[in-house]
Amino acid sequence: MPRHIAFLRGINVGGHRVKMDELRRLFGELSFSDVSTFIASGNVVFESPDEDRAGLEREIEGRFEEDGGQVRAIPRLATPSAFQSDLPPLHAPPSRAYSP
Prior knowledge:
Elements: E1 3-9, H1 20-29, E2 33-38, E3 43-47, H2 53-66, E4 72-77
Antiparallel strand pairs: 1-3, 1-4, 2-3
């Protein structure tokens, strides 16, 4: 079953506090399996047969709206490319590089 990562914006900021055990419970109610969270970041790893990012986004955000909260969900398939950026890596120019 495909593994996903949901990056949630609006969790544990501005007075909108959600404990991670509660967050795992909410994702379990959405019928996602093998749900885990990373510290109090609002990042959730889960399994779902659904690979439609827009559909997952609507489902996750809709669940929070039911509880009166507003959260922006950014789901991604948990593949190595999910962590890659299109931007080049940050490197100091050789003349400014630190050398001990």
